[in-house]
Design a protein that fits this description.
This protein is of the alpha/beta class and 380 residues long. Helix content is 48%, strand content 14%. Helix 10 links the parallel strand 8 and strand 9.
Amino acid sequence: MLKSICNQHEVILVCLYRDVDKYLVPDLRVAEKDLKNYCKKVIFIPHNLTIIKKFILLFKSFITNIPYSVYIYKSRSFNKDIYKLISNTVIDLIHTDTIGLFEALLGNNMAINVLNHHDIESHKLYRRYSNEKNVFKRLFFLHEYRCMYKYEQHYCSKYHLNIVVSEMDRDRLKMISKNINIKVIENGVDSEYFTYHSRDCNSKELIFTGAMDYYPNTNAMLYFCNQIWPKLKERFADLKLIIIGKNPPIQIISLINKIKDIELLGYVEDIRPYIKRAKVFICPIMEGGGTRIKILDAFSQGIPVVSTEIGAEGLHLENGKHIFLANTAAEFVEKVSELIENNELSRKISINARKLIEENYSYKYIGEKLAKAYEETLRK
């Protein structure tokens, strides 16, 4: 998306980074050099939170009723650098990538202010609260949901434009406040990078990709490995599962170590070779919000997907044409089995899904929509 916007506008990129991010990009100068191929200026701001600081912020959240997930993004250095920029440079539009980053500076600039929502945070927190079994965590997520709802209600209407990734998220945000200006700009995929490949008819490999330090992904894999995998192995003794994603938690590592034919790879530089050799992409996600970029990436590469309805929500999909939806363990087993056994069906699903990407979700198409939304907002 950044590349698409940089084709039409001068962009200054300001972003936070943590020490944990440097495990993936040890030399930030490499990232800066690459980003400067597109951006006029790139500013990295370190932002690290110790365990003690996190506990202090958690306590402050309960005292002030400001969401903890907002506090963890607060940065004096970030605010100082942004304020310096908007004071000394003519800025037409400020695109803030998530709630919690920019609200302190909303009244201190003359630019058009745009807020991007990867999902609706309060809705995601309520879903997490509803599914949580631990009493103390449940209380925390209830508190966090209530705080975030009020925070969104107060601040989202102060932005000139709010961008959401689906009509479903638009409706959720409208329920919080009718005075919020909203535009739907779907998540996209680089269809030139993620090229189409037909499936190996003899493959008996499943794959899942996603950051494993993100709770919905962790929970999805725990569910799949415990409830679905044993039943699939009864049908296909030679079946294998590849899980790709950074920072897997200890409960995932310890579980996988006990199960045969599941490989946990952690972070990889390039997922494409692994997707190319797999037969079915699984997305057994039960929580979270927004739309799953992993599904769009899979569609683009020609691998058929089996997902829960929650995992595929917000995308313009037709069950049985672009994807197979399965909400129970038994349904998941049946749909995965069908795609393994029926190569012609697998091929049709993958071709339909790739066509959907080309017509509706390519970055060229999405980038043009975002640029148009900017221009319309600037003209108002």
